[in-house]
């Protein structure tokens, strides 16, 4: 027992099991928890089955379970990690209080949760749905604010197949990783405010907002686009920019990501034909990351390009900021190892 009267977890136990907290328990269905539950028996020093999925807990056992959790005696198996990930993805703020999760497991939960929220929002891009997505993005920024290097674990879990939501999650995560690398000294010196970090994070995840107004049959077309279809696609940065007012998202960081992610250093991008330093740093990061993340996923009209090769290709393309592409290349080489 520790100083607070709770059981001290035996060495090695957390390699196979999560010790759950009262907050986690309360997030479960009261009568039918979504995964098997185990009890640590102190007298014999072993884990034993307490509840199996499919059973129904009585009111008496619910009260007993609550007390056992308070004593630190209740666990769930890490073999049920996939179930645990999907469960906590619906209540993402739990990752901030569950001290038994490993960094890699938290990264899995973030990717699951943010992909789910992005999918919901892109299916219905209205303020009420945005509120849930924004809440989860703020959980992400709070998690990273304590240690920005945590982004590395998320960046190793990019989706391999394309959808609008998956692409946005990939771009958001990798964009943050690149921004953090570029601004490393600014984070150390605390020159970046939390509000700025919150808004640029949202901007990177929402950069393709305007694509929600492009019909899916055009976005996912397996054959070359017609001139008319291409013109519709090219309007999505402006469409997204116009949507920001209706969603009450008129922040300069978000605007830059949405309106500038198809601008190019040589002035041959769109929609404003900006060039060089006319494009904000956030815009330049989004531009390179958006293209790279498209290249490394399986899309309806083409196969994925191996990450190191894609990073090499984009670093040799003068249309993109070399300061950004060098970090993309470094990231791709790190992931390969």
From TrEMBL:
HD-GYP domain: from which residue to which, for each copy?
A: 147-337
Q: Which Pfam families match?
A: HD_5 (PF13487)
What is the name of the protein in this document? HD domain-containing protein
From which lineage does this chain's organism come?
Bacteria, Pseudomonadati, Thermodesulfobacteriota, Desulfovibrionia, Desulfovibrionales
